[in-house]
Design a protein that fits this description.
alpha/beta; Rossmann fold; binds adenosine-5'-triphosphate; P-loop_NTPase; nucleotide-binding; ATP hydrolysis activity
């Protein structure tokens, strides 16, 4: 079982949020600006240590921080994929190398295996023909497709999406939303969004702050 159960308390930001996500489900997290949605994702990704809280993913503890306990799994060992509004890609690496980079950590042995796996993922998200381009040589939609491949290629047990469609041109949003609906099926996911169309297309359950 790889469902998520978490609580994140960051008093200096006025954040105290708790939620659970069943294995394989997508939870949409919506709420006003400043209500702590991105803070919660940062804690789950391991980028920010809450003052108090816990996060359990299946039988693993990502963190458990109280007055008396301090368990903290570093970001690189969490097996959590994080997709942000602006694609997080290395500008000096090709699309293929960007995707392959994460596969070293995911335990895919051998350069050729990683290259093939990266190419397969780029094909799957519709940018197989751009494998040798760098992010600066792609459109916003193409770069976000590459970032989706990068996040999913390593087989994350939890996927975090922070407004993944907000920075894209309106005309490519429906295609990328459809792609996300396909690739997120069966994955435990927290999706932060302000857009009802994302909730309808992608979410199994909604948590409104
Ligand atoms: N790096 C930071 N340092 C200090 N305070 C921050 C930082 N980032 C966010 N905050 C504050 O923490 C609170 C929660 O912000 P957060 O970005 O998590 O909200 P959000 O729900 O994601 O908002 P939005 O919908 O605008 O993206 C806000 O009051 C914000 O001003």
């Amino acid at each position: 079982m790889t469902g998520l159960d978490c609580r994140v308390v960051v008093p200096e930001r006025g954040v105290d949020l708790a939620l659970t996500v069943d294995e394989g489900q997508t939870l949409a997290l919506t709420g006003p600006n400043g209500s702590g949605k991105s803070t919660l994702l940062s804690a789950l990704a391991g980028w920010l240590r809450p003052e108090t809280g816990h996060a359990r993913l299946g039988d693993r503890t990502l963190f458990d921080v109280t007055d008396s306990r301090d368990t903290w799994t570093p970001a690189r060992r969490r097996n959590v994929g994080y997709l942000t509004q602006d694609p997080l890609l290395f500008p000096h690496l090709t699309a293929e190398a960007n995707v392959a980079f994460g596969l070293v950590r995911a335990g895919v042995v051998g350069r050729r295996n990683r290259r093939n796996a990266a190419r397969d993922w780029l094909e799957r998200v519709g940018v197989g023909q751009l494998a040798s381009r760098r992010p600066g040589e792609m459109s916003g939609g193409q770069a976000q497709r590459t970032a989706i491949a990068r996040v999913l290629a390593s087989g994350p047990e939890l996927v975090l999406l922070d407004e993944p469609l907000s920075a894209l041109d309106a005309q490519v949003v429906p295609q990328i939303r459809e792609l996300l609906a396909e690739v997120l099926t069966g994955r435990t996911t927290v999706l932060v969004t302000h857009h009802e169309a994302d909730v309808v297309a992608l979410a199994d359950v909604v948590h409104r702050i």
